[in-house]
Amino acid sequence: MDAPRPSGARRALLIGLPVAALAAAAFLFVARDERPAPDARPPSADSSAAPRPQRREEAPVVPPAAPPAAATVSAAAQESEPAPDTDPEGSIIDRMRAALTSNPEEVLRLDDEASRDLGDSPRAAERGMLRVRALVRLDRIGQARSLAEDLIERYPDDPSAKSAAAYMGIHPRPRGPSR
If we measure between CA atoms, which residue out of 137, 179, 132, 178 comes closest to residue 158? Predict the structure, then answer.
């Protein structure tokens, strides 16, 4: 014969208790006290053998400073040659993400500048996804939907284009012959 199935409350209890125990164990592991271990030496029977006090006259050890000539040469080299920006589009995208919640108009302005300066770059779909989200925040839903459809047509395999399409509820047509 089959055993009776547990009721909903009992099932929740049977599942919830082990999950709660695991969560508590994880919390205790993460929040454990980071105090150093006590001195591992056995206590001495002789109470007169007290630990030696630290001497306070000793100055802390300071590493030697670099020679001043080398410091001026490296500073002069840094001033004459600015650090190259390895990913200018990455900094633009970071600024777009930062402005998305507080100033969606700024996201559109940054995307317009990047499109003018960088054109169809490898991260254009990511910029487009951020633009779609900014347009939605500005209640320009029609433009956002059109842009998402354009992104999924131009970049069908790009995760950012897929994200923009999913954000707008667009289901791309499968590629290949139609049936």
Answer: 132
Chain-centroid distance, C-alpha 132? 21
CA dihedral of 149, 169, 175, 161, whole degrees rounded to 10: 60
Query: CB within 8 A of 121, min separation 6: which ones?
Result: 89, 114
> What was the pLDDT predicted at 34?
52
Q: pLDDT per residue over 41-50, tens digit each? A: 555 545 555 5
Give pTM, 2 decimals: 0.51
For 14, residues 6+ apart whose C-beta sits below 8 A from its C-beta are 6
Distance (Å, rounded) from C-alpha 167 to C-alpha 132? 9
Alpha helices in the chain (DSSP H): 8-30, 68-80, 88-100, 104-118, 124-137, 141-154, 159-167
CA–CA separation, 148 and 160 (whole Å):
10
- DSSP 3-state assignment of 33? coil
Q: What single-letter amino acid sits at 110?
A: L
Write down the pLDDT at residue 20: 73
Nearest to 117 by CA among 109, 140, 173: 109
- How many Å from the N-terminal Cα to the C-terminal Cα in the chain? 51
Q: Which two tokens stand for residue 68?
A: 């001043």
